[in-house]
Amino acid sequence: MVLLMVPGIAFLYSGLARRKSALSLIWTVMMSFSVVVFQWYFWGYSLALSSTATNGFIGNLDHFGLRNVLGAPSPGSPLIPELVYSFYQMQFCAVTSALVIGSVAERGRVIPAMVFVFFWATLVYCPVACWAWNVNGWGFKYGVLDYAGGGPVEIGSGVSALAYSWVLGRRNEKMMLNFRPHNISLITLGTVFLWFGWLGFNGGSAFGANLRAVMACWNSCLTAMFAAMTWCLMDYRLAKKWSLVGWCSGTISGLVAATPASGVITPWASIALGVVSGVVCNYSTKFKFFVGIDDALDVFAEHGVGGIIGLIFNAFFAADYIIGLDGVNTGISGGFLNGNYRLLYVQVAYIVACCAYMFVVSVIIAKGIDMIPGLHLRASEEAELLGMDDDQHGEFAYDYVEVRRDYLAWTPAEKEQKQDGIHVEPQHGITGHQDIAKSSHAPSTPPEPEAVHEKSTATSE
């Protein structure tokens, strides 16, 4: 179920982008999964969740190459063999990497992005997963309540995507005129795939067919649907239209907020969580304009902010009887309403540590890769104009459309409109199209001097 989230992210990101880079985002997300499968097998699982590591910050290499990972009880639950647990946790790293790498949208080269994924999973995801879920991790011992990944997955993806986008730079704004998501049906399909997979993500984190798993699924759906309704209302107040993209965005923001909280808080608190996450994440989409970072797919606004909200809700609304529904985690204290006031600063300290560490290290990794000859992250301006599909892959999401349209003839608008009768030939793109444009406007009689002058000026422009 969780594996299905990866193509769900691919479809979601593809639909949110423009047509000329739609296939590139699918490739980037799916290839990031390939990289993570290797990384997690190679040393990722051991660095994140090796139970013999005692430093509290990162694991050791005791399970390098899945060495000695078989039928012993797992660190997550004594009822689950470690081999099953390691495979399940690999999906979490894959989903997080796929979310992060959407930040390459429409202007990033794909091979340097894959190099980034490997080192990011090793130096960013694995340490924070160790903090939260390793039995010797400092966050785990400190008493942090992070059920299914508010820190490693949600803050990790949102903050790291913001960092990568910052290093990558803004898209060329002259090419962003009248920008719209190119395929809302694909966005909806990706959202539904994610929703289904999220039930495995949140429900499965109870590690068994038990009441806590069902409670997590209930809470996930409650939070998601109240967030979806809230987001649609927020958009309606501005546009006076009911947006399907708004419904999808709200659903995802709710599922994100439910990730750290769904197996921890009560259903009524999940409803409040949905409303709050819908409002706050909606407003957070404006954050990128304040900081001047082109987070093209709003990964930070939905995943980073949503994960923070879910973790804060745990501090107030965590209930000990919800946590104990799996029959394993009995005796763990809840949050503020359970009288555990200490959890307030524990959760805040954990949030600050995750945000700071993941942003700084992600920037260092991205900058370091960008400085290596041949691995610069940013595509050229010509490639951005052409589209990542053509420049990086030579394939298109909709090939039957691409062979009939010359996108490079759609040159960025100039400040002043041309007068009627002035012909502007495409300056880029398919040579044959330029020839057609010339022949179709060739004068049948010798032109007047003024007409010749006008045409030559237009051609040079």
UniProtKB/TrEMBL annotation:
Record domain Ammonium transporter AmtB-like: where? 2-398
Q: Has the keyword Transport been applied to this entry? A: yes
User: Compositional bias (Basic and acidic residues) at which positions?
Assistant: 450-461
Its Gene Ontology molecular function terms?
A: ammonium channel activity
Q: Which InterPro entries is this protein grouped with?
A: Ammonium/urea_transptr (IPR029020), Ammonium_transpt (IPR001905), Ammonium_transpt_CS (IPR018047), NH4_transpt_AmtB-like_dom (IPR024041)
The regions listed as transmembrane in this protein's record are 21-42, 83-101, 113-135, 147-169, 181-201, 213-234, 241-259, 265-283, 304-324, 344-366
Query: Keywords for this entry?
Result: Ammonia transport, Membrane, Transmembrane, Transmembrane helix, Transport
Which family, according to the similarity comment? Answer: Belongs to the ammonia transporter channel (TC 1.A.11.2) family.
Question: Under which name does UniProt file this protein?
Answer: Ammonium transporter
Which Pfam families does the protein's record reference?
Ammonium_transp
Q: What is the first-listed, main subcellular location in coarse terms?
A: membrane
GO cellular component entries: plasma membrane
Instruction: Tell me the compartments it is located in.
Output: Cell membrane; Membrane
Membrane topology is: Multi-pass membrane protein
Note whether Hydrolase occurs among the keywords.
Answer: no
Cite the PANTHER family for this sequence: AMMONIUM TRANSPORTER MEP1-RELATED, AMMONIUM TRANSPORTER MEP2
According to the UniProt record, where is the region Disordered? Answer: 418-461
